[in-house]
């Protein structure tokens, strides 16, 4: 499995497991699993976030369709799991496991609202961030949703460290195009330029995309369209269906997380589907986003 690691720390198979927590209250460790059907009409995501400083875990599972169906299990008061990363709450049980480090992972959810049994098989290598301990893995996704067979594509990621949901806005996007190219880009509104995490993976050859930036049009607070600027691959992103989450800090600060299943179209006419998030902490409109963010 090819690893493209932009950071100063080596990524090893042990990084697929849990890490020793830092002492900061906002230290967290999270696992994301995003998926979209072949036709782009159904998509979902699962996030497990551990917050040892708060003695709790966050669990999110959302499913949306192009015709307006939405199902969600959102729990911000789950007990911290053991090494098996199994969590449970009112009306649901969920599991997360790595079958083959950097190769295959599996998620399971049982609830009245939504049932998932999905395997994520790595499709194009592993991409490690430069600015924080985190990696992304483009995947083929198979299994069942509410008992029905599912086949599609997506991305899973794993990160650990301090994450302040209530002070920094960002854009994150991941998709697969019809020709098999995976793309990923992220940038935060920090008021400075950094080597933003971005890659293109064509025919399984994953490579860092230097100089990534993005621009978004909003209708009020709702994102209408973003243009992701990859070298030679400017891509327009339009939401199909939103699966948002509201995040409240222990002090009562509220952030909005408008995440959406999206349609993608490159400047040369290729199309695809994936997920994009436009994180909105308190006062995000009061601080002008940097050009391109």
TrEMBL record:
Q: Region Disordered: start and end of each range?
A: 1-23
Q: Which residues form the DUF7065 domain?
A: 12-163
Mind telling me what this protein is named? AttH domain-containing protein
Which stretches make up the DUF7064 domain?
165-282
Q: Where are the transmembrane segments?
A: none
InterPro entries (alphabetical)? DUF7064, DUF7065
């Amino acid at each position: 499995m090819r690893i493209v690691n932009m950071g100063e720390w080596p990524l090893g198979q042990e990084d697929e497991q849990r890490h020793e927590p830092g002492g900061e209250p906002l230290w967290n460790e999270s696992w994301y699993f995003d998926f979209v059907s072949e036709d782009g009409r159904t998509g979902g995501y699962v996030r497990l976030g551990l917050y040892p400083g708060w003695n709790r875990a966050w669990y999110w599972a959302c499913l949306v369709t192009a015709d307006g169906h939405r199902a969600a299990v959102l729990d911000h008061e789950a007990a911290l799991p053991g090494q098996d990363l199994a969590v449970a709450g009112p009306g649901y049980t969920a599991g997360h496991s790595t079958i083959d480090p950097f190769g295959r992972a599996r998620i399971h959810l049982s609830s009245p609202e939504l049932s998932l049994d999905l395997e994520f098989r790595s499709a194009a290598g592993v991409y490690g961030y430069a600015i924080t301990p985190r990696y992304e893995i483009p995947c083929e996704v198979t299994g069942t949703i509410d008992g029905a067979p599912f086949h599609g594509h997506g991305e899973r990621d794993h990160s650990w460290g301090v994450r302040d949901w209530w002070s920094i806005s960002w854009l994150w996007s991941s998709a697969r195009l019809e020709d098999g190219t995976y793309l990923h880009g992220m940038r935060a509104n920090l008021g400075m330029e950094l080597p933003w995490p971005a890659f293109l993976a064509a025919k399984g050859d994953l490579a860092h995309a230097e100089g990534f930036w993005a621009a978004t049009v909003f209708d009020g607070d709702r994102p209408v369209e973003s243009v992701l600027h990859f070298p030679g691959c400017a891509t327009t992103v339009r939401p199909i269906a939103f699966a948002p989450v509201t995040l409240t800090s222990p002090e009562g600060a509220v952030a909005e997380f408008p995440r959406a299943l999206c349609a993608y179209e490159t400047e040369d006419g290729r199309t695809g589907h994936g997920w994009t998030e436009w994180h909105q902490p308190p006062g995000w409109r009061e601080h002008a986003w940097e050009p391109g963010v």
